[in-house]
């Protein structure tokens, strides 16, 4: 009887199996897997492949194409407006370091009980929710001569004639634009840091406090090793984002007075000059640079947190306790002498 039932199950046709519960499960799983992959291929990988092919041609959006090989890639490094725009990424990289330092400092403070901390978190995170174009227009008027920033500085005792032109002076205009990016994105980094810090076991803080460890020691031996993954992620996102800065210089200055970043120059070459092949080559070069920078960052943080990978925060805290006891013991011996 059991053999007959087994044989009946085996003899199910494909349409019957497809209508069964098991077949429906497999069908749903395959559908949910295929649809995202098809959309990803159609809207990401296929356009990228076409752009890679365009980078070997001298072409416009409409018209004949001429195969030029690697000449477009050579122009990226020979033209001053293309390669020179990459130097501006150093300003935004410096700004990303300041941005992460501020975010980590505030996150460390707000992770503990602070009066009005939730309201402060909301205010700091709010700029990230604003559209980048809107932020550009806000800071365009903020930095305009005689407007908000100059007025505030005059309240502090500065004279308007002694203040620089924040968007014209090439010694300071890129720092002004970087400040806009820092203001917008450090709240996002802060929230990510807070989420990681709050996941640390509270017993570690209690044990460290009982042993006399100050906040700096707790940050060094408990917080930082525990959130190293989020630190690495935030640094990678910030550095790669600094290489592709577009909205602040495009909206606020339109790339004038030496503020045109790599993306702004690429936009002008592609849409104004209609040199699609050269713009495609610039995009490929930027992708390679981002991949290399990301790899170097991962190797760097792997080396920096190498000691932290060998032991957990509890082991590091125990080592710190032993050092503290040894220091107190030496102090007592010297005092007795």
Describe this structure in words.
With 337 residues, this protein is mainly alpha-helical. The protein has 2 domains: 12-43; 72-324, MetI-like (MetI-like fold, Orthogonal Bundle), CATH 1.10.3720. It has 18 helices and 2 strands. It is flat. The chain starts with a helix and ends with a helix.
Write the layout of secondary structure elements.
Blueprint lengths: L1 H9 L3 H6 L1 H34 L2 E2 L7 E2 L3 H8 L1 H8 L1 H22 L6 H13 L2 H11 L5 H8 L17 H26 L3 H9 L4 H12 L1 H16 L3 H7 L8 H11 L3 H29 L1 H5 L2 H24 L1
Antiparallel strand pairs: 1-2
Helix pairs in contact: 4-16, 5-15, 6-10, 6-13, 7-10, 8-14, 12-18, 13-16, 15-16
Say what the CATH topology of the largest domain is.
Answer: MetI-like fold
First-to-last CA distance: 95 Å
Report mean pLDDT, rounded to a whole number.
82
| Main beta-sheet annotation | 2 strands, antiparallel
Radius of gyration: 28 Å
Strand content: under 5%
Q: What is the second-level CATH architecture of the largest domain?
A: Orthogonal Bundle
Instruction: Report the CATH C-level class of the largest domain.
Output: Mainly Alpha
Taken together, the total number of domains comes to 2
């Amino acid at each position: 009887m059991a053999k007959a039932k087994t044989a009946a199950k085996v003899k199910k046709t494909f349409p019957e199996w497809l209508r069964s519960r098991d077949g429906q499960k497999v069908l749903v799983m395959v559908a949910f897997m295929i649809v995202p992959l098809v959309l990803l291929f159609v809207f990401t990988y296929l356009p990228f492949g076409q752009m890679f092919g365009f980078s070997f041609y001298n072409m416009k959006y409409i018209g004949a194409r001429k195969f030029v090989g690697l000449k477009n890639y050579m122009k990226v490094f020979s033209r001053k407006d293309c390669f020179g725009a990459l130097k501006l990424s150093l300003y935004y990289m410096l700004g990303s370091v300041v941005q992460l330092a501020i975010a980590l400092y505030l996150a460390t403070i707000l992770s503990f009980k602070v009066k009005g901390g939730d309201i402060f978190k909301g205010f700091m995170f709010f700029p990230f929710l604003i559209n980048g174009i809107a932020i550009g227009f806000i800071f365009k008027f903020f930095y305009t001569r005689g407007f908000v920033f100059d007025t505030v500085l005059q309240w502090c005792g500065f004279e308007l004639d002694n203040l620089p032109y924040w968007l014209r002076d090439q010694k300071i205009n890129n720092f002004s634009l970087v400040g806009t990016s820092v203001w917008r994105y450090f709240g996002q980094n802060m929230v990510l840091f807070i989420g990681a810090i709050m996941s640390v076991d509270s017993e570690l803080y209690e044990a460290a406090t009982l042993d006399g460890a100050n906040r700096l020691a707790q940050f060094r031996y408990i917080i930082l090793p525990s959130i190293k993954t989020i630190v690495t992620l935030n640094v990678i996102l910030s550095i790669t984002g600094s290489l592709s800065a577009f909205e602040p210089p495009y909206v606020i200055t339109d790339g004038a007075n030496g503020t045109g970043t790599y993306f702004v120059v690429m936009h002008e070459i592609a849409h104004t000059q209609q040199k699609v092949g050269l713009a495609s080559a610039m995009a490929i070069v930027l992708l390679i640079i981002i991949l290399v920078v990301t790899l170097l960052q991962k190797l760097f943080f792997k080396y920096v947190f190498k000691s932290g990978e060998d032991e957990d925060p509890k082991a590091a805290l125990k080592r710190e306790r032993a050092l503290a006891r040894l220091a107190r013991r030496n102090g007592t011996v010297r005092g007795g002498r």
